[in-house]
Inverse folding.
């Protein structure tokens, strides 16, 4: 159990972060446009469906606001990890 707890995503979050699931992205650019910190950009690579998918270009700037998540029309394309509240203390 200690190993599982150590490997839990929530237990390892030290700062907010964003994950783009390349195969779910259609490259519309909405997340890129709305991010207040300039974290995201459309990459140069294409996913298996032929779309240039978004990628974090400045991942350390992410504040976990979730704006990109709400702007994205594709379910499952964006995951935002917010800093655990207990770390804010
Ligand atoms: S959570 Fe906020 S800061 Fe982070 S990538 Fe998304 S819009 Fe940008
Ligand atoms: S808003 Fe969603 S579909 Fe559009 S580029 Fe960003 S992750 Fe891809």
């Amino acid at each position: 159990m200690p190993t599982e707890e150590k490997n839990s995503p929530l237990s390892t979050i030290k700062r907010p972060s964003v994950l783009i699931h390349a195969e779910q992205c259609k490259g519309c650019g909405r997340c890129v446009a709305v991010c207040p910190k300039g974290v995201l950009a459309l990459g140069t690579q294409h996913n298996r469906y032929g779309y240039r998918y978004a990628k974090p270009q400045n991942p350390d700037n992410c504040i976990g606001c979730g704006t990109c998540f709400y702007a994205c029309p594709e379910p499952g394309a964006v995951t935002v990890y917010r800093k655990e509240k207990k770390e804010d203390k």
